[in-house]
Every structure is written in structure tokens, then in C-alpha cells.
Amino acid sequence: MSLSPDYVKSVFTHLTSGHAAEFFSHVIDNVDWVVTGDNHPLAGHWHSKESFFKDSWSRIGAVLMKPMQLSIEGVVVESQGPGRRGKAVVELRGIGGLLKNGNAYNNEYCWVVQFDEHGRITAVRAYLDTAKLRDALEMNE
User: Fold this and answer.
1) pLDDT in tens, 63-107
2) How far, CA to CA in Å, does 38 sit from each of 7, 29, 34, 41, 42?
3) Its domain of life (predicted)?
4) Which helix (H) or strand (E) holds 101?
5) What ranges do the domains of the chain cover?
6) Are 128 and 107 within 8 A, CB to CB?
7) Cα 52 from Cα 43, distance rounded (Å)
8) What is the per-residue pLDDT for 84?
9) Quick count: other Cβ atoms within 10 Å of Cβ 102?
10) 5-140, CATH topology level
11) How big is the CA angle at 33 (ends 137 and 67), to the nearest 5 degrees?
12) Which pLDDT score, from 0 to 100, does residue 98 have?
């Protein structure tokens, strides 16, 4: 399949509509997932969808009384070619989250995502406002 901005948006729309399970159905089980940074507890490198979900995704979910509403702010696609997997950069904005302590939680994300020839996500490198994440976890776990 040819990777396009419309296809990438269709995958990420599952996150913006609150259907994370549908989004993760597009992620291979042995995904290579990196959350960048070194000054927050969720920075790390995972080699499976299960371990990323358990050690990272569910931790932030556990400190939220109300999840953020994500929106797709932009998508840039580098097409596939001989010997090259497709890659997309997805800019996300999360607003309206509410932490257990009653404080608002908003964040912005930039995910560099690699896709295989079947349109499944094989690797993610996630960038975000790590100070906001660190503070949210420290004050609410």
C-alpha cells in the first residue's frame, strides 16, 4: 500500500475519537516505541505494544479523571520506496484533560511513526512537553 496523509489521519482519528483500542489495532505487537526525554518517569524504550501500554500509556491514564481530547494538527508523510519503509510525522494537541488533583492537563505531541507495507505501525518516536507530564505524574500517582 502507498502511505498517504489521508491514510495516516484515518489511523490517528481513532485516538481523536477516543477509540484507543482501534488505534492500537494498527500497531504491530512487537512495535519499537520510544518516548523521548530523561527528566520524566515515562521516558523509555519499549519493544512490544503490551509493555508500552502497561508501563507508559496506562500510567498517564491512571492519573486522569477526564482524558484529554486529542486533535490532529498536522501530518507529513515520507513515501515508501525501494528498501525504505513509509514514515509519517504526526502533530497532536491534547486539551481538556483533568488530573486527579483537579488540575487541568493539556499537552502537545509530535510522533514520528514508521509503517510497514501493510499500513501497520512498526515504530514510534514520541516527543512531548516532558515537564508537564513529569509534574502530572508526581502530583497524582
Assistant:
1) 999 999 999 999 999 976 666 678 999 999 999 999 999 999 999
2) 32, 25, 12, 8, 9
3) Eukaryota
4) none
5) 5-140
6) yes
7) 11
8) 62
9) 8
10) Nuclear Transport Factor 2; Chain: A, (3.10.450)
11) 40
12) 97
Burial class (CB in 10 A: 0-12, 13-18, 19+), 97: buried
Cα separation, 128 vs 139, in Å, equals: 18
Q: State the CB neighbour count (10 A cutoff) for residue 13.
A: 14
Distance CA 4, CA 29 (A): 23
Cell numbers at 20, concatenated: 484507543
Of the chain, the end-to-end C-alpha distance in Å amounts to: 42
What does DSSP say about strands 86-99 and 44-46: parallel, antiparallel, or unpaired? unpaired
Cα–Cα separations (whole angstroms), residue 30 to 50, 53, 124: 8, 12, 12
Tell me the pairing of strands 27-35 and 121-128: parallel
Please tell me the pTM assigned to this model.
Answer: 0.91
**Strand pairing report for 86-99 and 64-66:** antiparallel
Residue type, position 86, single letter: G
Residue 82, pLDDT score: 65
Q: What is the pLDDT of residues 64-74, one digit of tens each?
A: 999 999 999 99
Task: Give the C-alpha distances (Å, rounded to integers) separating 104 from 76, 78, 130, 137.
Answer: 29, 35, 15, 13
